[in-house]
């Protein structure tokens, strides 16, 4: 299936690039198999992958995360999508460096998951 999710993300980034994101938002999923399904609903996604972030100004960040996702979409039907995703998150970052840096980013995300 291919899902597009627009919502709010909370991401935790460890070290240079590994991040774990939780995204809650609205999804449109299209599944093509023995049949074709279109699901519109609310999604919760967990993504583990690699983030590249650019920080603009004091605290606004734009992050692109590429990784593996598990999404659960509840709408007219319930879909579970496990696959690869690309997310773009725009939000605010707070970073703490203790040996390696740990960043928490909260913002608005657009994710595309293909599974």
List the helices and strands and how they pair.
Elements: E1 2-14, E2 18-32, E3 36-56, E4 60-75, E5 78-98, E6 100-114
Antiparallel strand pairs: 1-2, 1-6, 2-3, 3-4, 4-5, 5-6
Describe this entry's structure for a reader.
With 115 residues, this protein is mainly beta. It is built from no helices and 6 strands. It has strands at 2-14, 18-32, 36-56, 60-75, 78-98, 100-114. The termini are close together.
What is the spatial order of strands in the main beta sheet? Answer: 1-2-3-4-5-6
Binned, the helix content reads: under 10%
Low-confidence stretches: none
Briefly note the structural class of the backbone.
Answer: mainly beta
Largest sheet: 6 strands, antiparallel, barrel
How many beta-strand elements? 6
Strand content: over 45%
Distance between the termini: 5 Å
| Helix count from the secondary structure assignment | 0
Cα Rg: 15 Å
Choose one word for the global shape: elongated
Element order: H for helix, E for strand: EEEEEE
Name the average pLDDT: 82
